[in-house]
Amino acid sequence: MHKIVGIVAGIALFAAACNQSSNTNQQDNNGQAQQAAAPAVKAPSFNADSAYVYTAKQVSFGPRIPNTPAQTKCADWLIGQLKLLADTVYVQRTTVTGPGKKALPCINIIASFNPAATQRILLLSHWDTRPQADQDAFDKTKKLDGADDGASGVGVLLETARQLHAQKTNVGIDILLTDVEDSGVSEEENSFCLGTQYWAKNPHVKGYKANYGILLDMVGGRGSQFFMEAGSQQYAYGPMKMFWDVANRIGYSDRFRYDNIGAGITDDHVYVNTMAAIPTFDIIALQQNGNFVPHWHTSNDNMSAIDKSTLQAVGQTILEVIYTQPFEY
């Protein structure tokens, strides 16, 4: 993914005005706020050790670059893991056109839980690795592990799948693991997120819709902070604000920040929003100045960058939202 140049001014204020929650602190006839009822279902405990192991396993295959043995081996492992956990698993195998009209094999994997439910949440993350460490200080041709940029989001979603298997929920959940996200070039904005673009045009279920989507991208780095990305505020402010509120309520205010830094990212959520018309927000580590974290697209994006406390903050908030207030926005 790469950053959109420019600041989106006032977007949060506009979105907030247009997305007033109708489900929190309702007013009674006397104008007094009524406290929302406590959730009837307790969210399971997210296991950060498990998410870490899932992340490390992906890295162990080597860089998951399209058209390499690591791509095939990791895809087979992901499919096998999800078949043990989900109600239904779909696999999309196709070929997409990358920069320079290069044909790239693409494997999207979709795991559905409670497929009969009409109220659904889409959770997604890319699982491929950028072909080269183009932001490295010395050797921009190096390969990188993609431990945070790719594997960490998938690790959190695999642990989420494990919890969904162990404790059923009435909500329909679809986990979408997309391929060929990071083979693009900055000169061609739409050369990124090719697996997601394919899925948006060819969903795993004809006419597929979800109430909203949550994209995880770089969610495992040590000391990571998550700000409200500009495009996410434009398309999915309501569910995003709900997610941030839950994270802050359960003790992760140091991670999920309300500061409006104005950064907009070209990431998978852009195409889910504009092509699939599913309001989707991006959870992605950024610095206060709007730049990516220092290990982004460098050889330092390895397991030493991964912190279990970051995985815990993201994963526990996901479970809290899914099990206690999935649509209260």
From TrEMBL:
Q: InterPro entries under this entry?
A: Peptidase_M28, QC/QCL
Give the Gene3D superfamilies listed for this entry: Zn peptidases (3.40.630.10)
Entry GO MF terms? glutaminyl-peptide cyclotransferase activity; zinc ion binding
Signal peptide region = 1-17
Residues covered by the Peptidase M28 domain: 108-321
Task: Name the UniProt key words of this record, in alphabetical order.
Answer: Acyltransferase, Signal, Transferase
Query: What name appears for this protein in its UniProt entry?
Result: M28 family peptidase
